[in-house]
Amino acid sequence: MKKTIVLFAALAALSFSAAAQNLNPEVRVINDYMISQGEVSKLDLPMAVPDSLTHFDYHFDYSVSDSPYKGAYEFSPYAVTITPAFRPYDGRKLFLKAGAGFVFKPELDFVWAPLDTKKASLNVFASADGYWGNYLRIGLTSYESEAGEYTKGYDFAATAGLDGRFSLGGSDLRVQLGYDGFYNAHEAVAGGAYHSPWLQARFGSEAGRWMAYDLVLTGRYISDMTEGPDPLNAFELGFIARTAPGIKGWPVTPLLDLDVAANSWYTAVSIKPHATVNLGGFDIDAGVSVGYAGRFTIHPDVTVKYKIPAAGLELFAGAVGKDHHMQYSDYKSRYHFYSTQYGNPSTIRETADFFLGVSGHAGTSFQYKLDGGLRMLENAPFWAMEGGAGESLFFQPCNLWHASLKLSWSSENFSAEGKADFTKPLRELDPGVFAPSMVTGGVEFGYNWLKRIYAGISASGALRRTAVYNGAEKHIPGYVDLGVRGEYKFSRKLSFWLKGSNLLAQDIRISPMVSECAPAVVAGVILNF
Predict the structure, then answer these.
(1) pLDDT tens for residues 328-344?
(2) What is the C-alpha radius of gyration for the chain, rounded to an integer number of angstroms?
(3) Adjacent-strand bridge partners of 279
(4) Are 467 and 433 in contact (CB under 8 A)?
(5) Beta-carbon count within 10 A of 279 CB
(6) Fewest 10 Å CB contacts: which of 65, 117, 256, 389?
(7) CA nearest neighbour of 425 among 456, 466, 457
(8) Dihedral through CA 258, CA 402, CA 2, CA 292, nearest 10?
(9) Are 100 and 94 in contact, with CB atoms under 8 Å apart?
(10) How far is CA 182 from the centre of its chain?
(11) Angle (nearest 5°) at CA 313 between 311 and 318
């Protein structure tokens, strides 16, 4: 089984409680802050990969679980960050959320908006979190946690920068300049310091223009000490273009998407010509995705939706594939101990995902979505054993059955959400490769009293993952992560918050060899003025 790099949209499927390992960079501002929540451009369907590589992110829309800024990139090969849009100024210019607790897991989120007008805005932002304390000691060959045995370690993440928006007569220019850093140490895996300054510039048309366009240029420099005394020095560049001419009277809207990625290891290009059309209740988006990363690839890209308004539902089906351009920072943001010792970053080819499903609502409170299908990956990423001892990352061709169910119910004071995901490879994986957990999911309940006192309880979990090596089975254990959260809004400007995670003291693996241990209770304050 050949060692190489893999996509890794988060070994954090097992890191719900590990905030330091669970960086989910995304520009977001709490609902009652002066700037509206940033939107993320997702013109393609998300790539649902095995749970071992997918971050199951569940949260409610109240301020204790919101975070203003978390970096320059959402972890997605087809999505880019958009800075917050303008909304009428309400007098508030500063947001600060800070807290710490036991075990030691400090959190900090900060936004200062010295300028906010219809023509221009400027934000200064910073975000940090981390963990310092005991890690469960994992057997090097057994992959079992050793009862009562611990090792000290830490893992901290930070980001800071400037975020500016300028209106230029029919177009918007948005610029972010910032820094990401990870600092960690662990007995079983190499640690160190990672420094990465970055720049992102976005130029797009305002609503109502006859030609809609969106151009995004990103650049990043990387210095990573994880590999030892000599740091890894590398660069990353990315360019994304989206165009959609709107011609009056035409029933068809032609579109063109272009993705370019270049770094110290590879250069890749993807182009997707497609078109949207509405025919008698059917919404159709049809095209192809053509890519080049060492060789040419072509994938179908067709989605069909049919709405039945009287029943409050929508039926959908499709066949969608593409090359996902994964860069070094994508891997690092999801596993802070990542280095090229795990392999060099490369594109991940999704031949096609054939899916169908239904979504809808009943009344104004209940919503649901059920979908499933067959995903065909030319190089599916998985955690694997390193020669029977330690952890590694491997990819292999793999076809997967997948299904997902999402439910939500909300009223003025109460909300409930639930999700369950099913994933099963069509054939047995290579020796030493951990199969994805067959079932992952979670539920979360929230309640607010007079929009002053907020409380929530959540439970997420996964079945165990198994690898077969030399005829013997090795396991990454399943888990249940029980959490609680609450907030008391003392005034419009001041709130106090509390949250607890892993209250059942489960062995929740971030990777095969890394597992933060012990329940955590963190408390803090929110200033908003």
Answers:
(1) 999 899 899 999 888 88
(2) 23
(3) 282
(4) yes
(5) 11
(6) 117
(7) 466
(8) -10
(9) no
(10) 17
(11) 145
What is the spatial distance between Cα 273 and Cα 121, in angstroms, rounded to a whole number? Answer: 34
151 φ/ψ angles, rounded to the nearest 5 degrees: -135, 145
Q: DSSP for 143-162? A: --EEEEEEEEEEEEEEEEEE
Q: Look up residue 342 and give its DSSP letter.
A: G
What tens digit of pLDDT does each residue of 381-430 get? 889 998 778 898 888 899 999 999 999 999 989 999 999 999 999 998 99
Half-sphere exposure of 91 (CA within 13 A, CB side): 3
Longest dimension (CA), the chain: 71
Token pair recorded at residue 481: 């992560």
Give the DSSP letter of residue 503.
T
Pair of tokens at residue 108: 């900090």
The structure tokens 């409170």 sit at 365
Give CA angle at 235 (230, 240), nearest 5°: 160
Q: Token pair 């119910």 is at which residue? A: 409
Host H or E run for residue 330: helix 328-334
Residues of the chain with pLDDT under 50: 1-90
The dihedral through the CA atoms of 276, 279, 283, 286 has a sign that is negative
Report the C-alpha gap between 133 and 340 in whole angstroms.
Answer: 26
d(CA 31, CA 181): 27
Question: Which phi and psi angles does 42 have, rounded to 5°?
Answer: -125, 85
Tokens 């008391």 belong to 488
CB 451 within 8 A of CB 118: no
CA-CA distance, 389 to 156, in Å (whole number)? 26
Structure tokens at 281: 């209740």
Query: Residue 269 and residue 260: Cα distance in Å, rounded?
Result: 5
For the segment 124-178, what is each residue's pLDDT rounded down to a tens digit?
Answer: 999 999 999 999 999 988 899 887 789 999 999 999 999 999 988 778 899 999 9
Task: Enumerate the β-bridge partners of residue 219.
Answer: 199, 237
- Rounded CA-CA distance 478/464 in Å is 4
CA proximity to 401, closest of 440, 369, 353: 353
Determine the Cα–Cα distance for residues 205 and 213; give it in Å rounded to an integer: 6
Asked whether 214 and 182 are in contact (CB, 8 A), the reply is no
Using CA atoms, how far apart are residues 331 and 222, in angstroms rounded to an integer?
Answer: 13
For residue 31 the two structure tokens come to 């609902």
**Distance between CA 202 and CA 165 in Å, rounded?**
9
The answer to whether residues 384 and 398 touch, using CB atoms and an 8 Å cutoff, is no
Under a CB-based contact definition with an 8 Å cutoff, are residues 400 and 406 in contact?
no
Inter-residue contact 345 to 5 (CB < 8 Å): yes
Other Cβ atoms less than 10 A from the Cβ of 209: the count is 14
Instruction: Tell whether the torsion through CA atoms of 64, 162, 81 and 86 is positive or negative.
Output: positive
| The residue to which tokens 């087809």 are assigned | 78
